[in-house]
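[Automated response] Your request has been received and processed.

Submitted sequence:
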Amino acid sequence: MPRRFTRGRKPLGTLRKKRRPVGREQHVPSALQSSVLEVLAGQTTAMDEAEIAQSLHLSRRELLPLRAALDQLLAHRAVEKKGRRFVLAAKEERLRGTLDLTARGSGYAVPEGEQAKGGKDVYIAAHNLNGASHGDSILVALVASNRGRREGRVIQILRRAVTRICGIFTASGAGGLVTPDDDRFPATLLIRRGDTLNAGDGAAVVAAIVDYGSERQGPTGRIVEVLGDARAASVQIRMAVLQTGLREHFPAEAEAEAAQLLPVTACTEDRQDLRHLPHVTIDGETARDFDDAICIEQAGGRFTLYVSIADVSHYVQTGSAIDQEAYLRGTSVYLPDRVLPMLPERLANDLCSLVPDQDRPAFTAILSFDAAGRRVGARYAKSLIRNRQRFTYTTVNQLLYLRDPQVRAAHGELTPMLEQADALAELLRKRRAARGSLEFNIPEPEVCLEGEKVAAIRLAERNRAHLLIEDCMLAANEAVAETLATAKHPVLYRIHEYPDPGKLETFTDAAKAIGLRLPASDPDQAWFAQVIAQARNSPAEYIVNNLLLRTMQQARYSPENSGHFGLAAPYYLHFTSPIRRYPDLVAHRVLHNLLAGRAPGAIRPVPGKEADLTEAGGHLSQCERKAIDAERNAHARCACLFLMDRVGEIFAATISGVTAFGLYVTLDDSYINGMAPLTGMTDDYYLYDSRRYRLVGETSNRMYQLGDRVLVRLEQVDFTAKRLSFALAPR
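Generated structure:
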């Protein structure tokens, strides 16, 4: 039955949670508690209080402390009470993990060792957190299993992840308070007089946690950095960096190593000279690190594709200071006003970057294709290349697809080669489509800054030149993956598993609700491809692609190759971006090991004595997710800045989600997302139809359904939650 909701609630955007302390002090057994545990451990039967006191030779004055110790041990479930008698608690299954705290106060932990295997997380209720905060390394005892999901409780905090928080300072006579900028840390931090660093009222600050507090007293801290005006774009983006725990600076050892590196200026015996080939790079206008170049030759109906990738492995030796820092970062992070690179600038933008008119060491995949685009040969070489032209996507689009006469005249020497590249890319794309590769069309918003202001948020331009480069890179990644798998050389594959069945069922219900006719066959790559094709260029395209993407499992890195569902590829890894992704550097090292004729596993592709690729896959997958979180966080902040002075304005939007508590909407011009809570829909009583993804007015029969176009009025901009609240405007 549909659920019925009435008027009278406060809008979601105005609700504020009661702030709670970060948590209790971590439990450390006292000497008396430890003695009690030792006594109970030596018994086969339960003991009462008097027997325990006698075993410990306690006086009558020490009975009250004993009772307090027993109460503490019971509270922390170290002992159990059976009537009036005590025994050691039954041994529980214990797991180490990292806490992911939600804004609702509960949390999840993925046990160590299961992260790289896609292991299921452990749910931890708020009352079982035992003082742990977001990101803490914790020891968890499993307490139950509910519908296949494990539940646990924190029994020990192994390492505090958060020792500093960023937030907004509120001054007072006694010092002040810092309100955390992250909903997952909802406790205000008391700042005593003398620890404010002269921060002004309302300033964005970074505070070190001095004391995590207890049930009776909140946490305290001291301000260590004043960030500045909380409404400045650079400050908000810096807060996103701090909130996600990204590494901002390179260690002095890594910078010193980078400064001592020398460029490759000549071709050696182990490096093939490919400087005669007309390699080109194609990137965005603002790109500074060029890690891939291409060249195509066509003869006798066959194509030879050269995909030359910056030879980062020549400069970055396994276990070096640069390598260890790159591994910890895992990936470069691209934000609206800055880049946090994986490698020091001397490498990322100079020695490794395939800049124009400079000799650069590369690792080249030389791939042969027949006239139908079928790969018929692959070989690889360490090389020396020279980039003939730094093209942008815009220029190549004008040259090849818009056929701009001036652009074609300016690049007449390279135009034939680019046309051959386009012909091959078209063949490769068709072959991927035929096997079921999924081509999602998800618009990407782009933040445009003018000084400290967000001037615009608009759709990032994407044209056929982007596809050309992607087709070439995909071909190289697949070829290297198949080569290493066939040779049985351990490496990190990029795997993408079959969609979650529960999410797939949700998608089919939503797709039917918006009028799609789903294929009758069982869902496989071809099924998904048909759904995407059916929605292409229709008003529902954005909704369908977005919903379909949510059904997919996250791609991840693993030494176990299970194929890539989204690309319908039996072999796939990342090889083409070693300047900005560590797994690509791993692939380079392993491929070099193969070319050198060494046995599989003869070299360490990652730092550390064990060089465990399973552990590395889990770590690097987490680094990628952290980077994605930071980018989304920064975008949400910029969206708030962009709209903070536009409360009351009307926007055209599309309903992108329907829930029992309201409508999610996406603004048509900027693709900014927000919420129109049901509590603001006071013109009727609305029923939630979960099967058809719609709200239906009980009296008026007015319907709001997934995919509908609506007008919305901006009601509130909540900077703390990074949330935008809207109300439906009259039709």
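Summary generated for your ticket: Residues 1-28 have pLDDT under 50 and may be disordered. DSSP finds 17 helices and 34 strands in the chain.
If you did not submit this request, please reply to this message.
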